[in-house]
Amino acid sequence: MGLLDRLRALVDPDSDSLDRPDLRRRVVEGILQLRRRGQRGVEQLPLSVLVAVTVGEGSVEVVRQFVDEPAFDDEIDAELRNRLVGIRPDALPRRRYVVAAGELTGVVVTESDSGVTARLCIRGGDRDGEHIVLSAGLREHRIGRGEWHEPGTVTNDIALGAAFVSRRAAILRVAGSALEISALDQGECLVVVRRDGKRIRPVNTRSRRVRVGPGDLLELNDGGGQRICVEILSPEEEE
Fold it and tell me: Residue 173 and which of 62, 77, 116, 186 are 20 to 30 A apart at CA?
C-alpha cells in the first residue's frame, strides 16, 4: 500500500478530534502497514518510524498529552506484540510523534530514515561538551567507566573517565518512543534530573528504571559534590 492509500485509510474528514483508543488503533495500523518479509519469511518492522498526527486546533494539546504518556506507548507495544505473534520486544520500532493542527484529522506513519535514536552531550569530566549520537540500530547503550563494561568481553557504549563512575554504571534502553535508564553498579549515585529540577533515583523506583527524554540529565555522582552528567538532546538538535 502506497503513501496515498495510507492517507486515505487513516484520514477522517468527518471528525476534528481523536480519542485515545482510536489514536492507538490508527498508530498500530499505520505501523503494521510498514511491515515486510525478512529472511525465512519472518515479518520485520522498520527500526524507527515517524507518526504524524493531524487534528483540529482545539484537540492538539489533548493529543500531545496522549502521546507524551509512557503508558500510551506501552499500549502500542502490547498491541503490536499481540498482532505480530513471536516478534521480539527489541524488534519493535522506535516511534517519534509530531502533532499539528490541520483541516483533516488523520494519522500517517512513515519509516524514519534518520537512523538516530537520540543525541547526548556529556557535561563535566575529561569529555565535557562532547556529543554522542545513539544509532536507531541499537536497543541498549551501556554506560560506565572506561572501555570495558564486562572485563575483556563487553564494552561500554558511553565511556566516562571519572573514578567515581562504576564500570557497569547503567544501561540506557530504547523503549518505544522513549528512552529508559536503569542503574546497575552505580546504584543510588545515578540520578535523573528533570528540567524542573526534580531528582529521581531509578534504583529506588518500583520498576528500577525511569523514562527519560530531551532536557533530562543523567547524573552520575560520588555521593558528595563530584558529578558527571549526560544530557539528552532531541534527535534533530544540532551538535
Answer: 62
